[in-house]
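Lab notebook: predicted structure, single chain.

Context: the supervisor wants predicted structures on file for every construct in the current expression panel, including those that have not yet been purified. This is the next one on the list. No modifications to the sequence; it matches the entry in the shared construct table.
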Amino acid sequence: MAVEMIARLVHRPSWCRMLECEWSELEQGLETRELRDLRPEADAVLNRSFDVDLEADILDWMEPLPYPEYECNCISHLRRLRNDGEVNDDQLAAGMLQLADWASAGEWRCIEGRGYLYIEPYCGEECHGERGLYGRSVWERALERILQMPVGEFGEAVVLDWMQRREEFGETLEANADAHILPTMQSHLRHTEALHHLANRLAKEDDLLLLVGRDWTSATSWGFGQFNLNRLLRDGWPGSEEE
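Prediction complete. Output recorded below exactly as produced.
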C-alpha cells in the first residue's frame, strides 16, 4: 500500500476542548453523539472522516486503555500513562491524532511520491528523503510561495513539471498511448487546487493550525513545534494548567 502525505487543517480551540474533556465525558459524548457540536464545519474542498466512523475509531482506541483512577481530563490521563510507562507513546499519540481529526475542518492528502511535485519546487531547497519533505520550514516556505501564485498558475506549473519529468525518464506524453495520462493530469490539477485552498485558509484563519504527517507511520512525528504530538504528550497543551 502506498504511503500518503497528509496535511490536516485543525481548529485549535476544538482540539484543545477535546483534549481537555474529562475522560468519562469524552467517552459518553462520543457514545451519545453529543460531541458532534464541537466538530468544525466540514470544508467544501477538503476531505475528512465521517462523524460516525471517527466516533467508533476513538472509542475503539479508548477501550483497552486503563481507566483513570480519579477524574481527570484526557491529556492529563494520557501523560500519566506515558510517564508511568503503562502504554507506549505510539498508541497514545494515535488517539490524540484521531481527536485532531475530530477537530479538523478537512485534510489534503496525496501519494508521498507525488508530494515532491507539490512541495519541493516551492520551498527553496531540495528535500532529501522522507524527513526533508515533512519539515516545518519546508511547508511554511512552500505554502507561502504557493499563495503568491494564482491557483491556475500553480496547477499549470505542477503539470508542466510532471510532464518534464516523464520526458526525462523516456515516458510518453501521448494520451492515446497511455490511458493514465489525462486522469493523472486531472488529478494533479485537483490536488493543486485543494492545496492552494488549504494554504489560503491557513493564512487567513488564526484559529487553524497545520498538522502534517505520513499515513501508516507513528503519530508521534505529526505536527510542528509545540503542537507536535510527541511534545504534547511530554509537555501538555501550550499554556494550559492541567489537572
